[in-house]
Description:
The chain is mainly alpha-helical. It has ten helices and four strands.
Amino acid sequence: MTVTIAEELLLLAYSEDEGKQLIGVTQLDPALGGAILAELAAAGRVELADDKVTVKDRTPLGDEELDATLARMAEDGKARKPAWWVQRVQSAKLRKRLLTRLAGAGVLAEEHGKVLGIFPTTRWPEADPSVEADVRERVTATLAGAEPDVRTAMLIAIMHAAKLDRKAFPGADRARVKEIAEGEWAGAAVAKTIAAINAAIAVTASTAAVVAATS
């Protein structure tokens, strides 16, 4: 099964057996928005110039979530900062749609229950461990020194921005994670794109955390 960067992120962000989040939604949701943006950049559909994101190619990729965001950006037609788009793409609804899609594909199971017998809750344990195993194998090899491909590097960088890397890969070399997250392995254009998306995730997560704390 082919999964998007956002779906790979979700698989790593939920515990395999219990299906519970390893990080809070104020970190996870902006990371998913950033992952959608990163995938479009990796596929050559959008590009970063002068700290603004613009649509380069409107050709659909054949993925409902990616194509909806690409169409939305193309319709908007303006060069905007990455944080502007991350804030608008990220949402609890996006997270639920992606989780439901993974469950529909047999990768996750959707289990409903109640906390204290009152409050409804949903867990997403793994149903097919092979998909996440493939992702982990690719990430582990990269963190061990293998030359990263753009999509794997972006996944690692987004995990780092969301502070998920320490939870999902607790034994990883922090210096190597930082090296990849800062784009030191890549050309200037890719490195700049990764840095902009990571900064956008951090800004959005920080804003969400402040709003949650004061509401």
